[in-house]
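Annotated sample (chain length 368).
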Amino acid sequence: MSQAKLQIDFKVLAHNFSYLKSQLRSSTKFMAIVKANAYGSDAVMWSQTLEALGADYLAVAYCQEAIALRDAGINIPILVFHPQKEDLENLVNYDLEAAIYSLEQLKSYRDYLIKSDKAHLSIHLNINTGLNRLGIKKEDISKVIALLQNQNKLRLKWLMSHLAASDDLAQLSFSEDQAAAFEEVCHSIETELNQAFKKHLLNSSGIFSLTHKQYDMVRSGIALHGYSNLEHIDPHLKVVAHLKAKVTQVFNISKGEYVGYNFGFQAGNDMTLATVAMGHADGIDRKFGQKQNQVFFEDTALPILGNICMDMFMVDVSNTQIKAGDWVSIFDAQHNADLSAKSIGTISYELLCAISSRVEREFILLEN
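Output written by the structure step:
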């Protein structure tokens, strides 16, 4: 039996999917982001569930993630956000769609396909409107248009961009400016190519903060997990995953004794401690130690003492009835991953994605 479990409730995922869909026009398509093993969950199970729920698209970061989904029988369109030059054959062979984010990438793909007997590749043109991560800038659009003309191998289906701060309502004007810049570039492309293209811009928080810019499709990852990054929206979502670990030993220490590596904690009085079978090899950041975070046994908070070890950490269980074999909650619906992450100055994404493969995934399926 596993020493740690990530319990994933797909009935809760269905609730979140339904709520997000309720915020959209009936004609707006839904792209579910399942990169990074569905944010530390299980990309195949997550994708199969979303396909059954009616998601229109899936998206991943890299080509090998998409191939794994195709091999698992996923049939709906899959967008690869960050394909590499050497991925082209797999993109075509596995019927994937590619985000084009640079002139070099566009020219490389175009030239290879024209010279080969490969079928066409459907592409989404990623336009840089201010995030400055990936994307083609406005001044290069004329070169993009020239490369796309007079060929039929690269088939432009979608125009897209990424918002930089849609979760920050104080920066809403910046998001509006990004949308305006996106529309300006889209108009130029459509005018020059004499064709209308579908568009997608909004991420999870953008669905709520910039909903009038949903265009033809929205993209959502973290909100499907129950985290919108907007305080007024989070109550409408439910937390999908519950991370828990087993207590393997309960023991007493005396005043003045140290706990863990490098004398990370010294007892100010006699105490009862428990060892929990998770560590930084499982995704529990070392910064969670030194009382910076806590876990929960029933409704009792148990401060983490000393430094997180590779495979375990110690907690204060004085005045509880906890025993070896009991389970403690690292995060759950009440004490969620966002709260845990904030305690060490990070975000829920990082905590969720860090959960290692050593942690057993336990699924509550839709039909259960």
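Annotation: The longest strand covers residues 241-253.
Annotation: The two ends are 22 Å apart (CA to CA).
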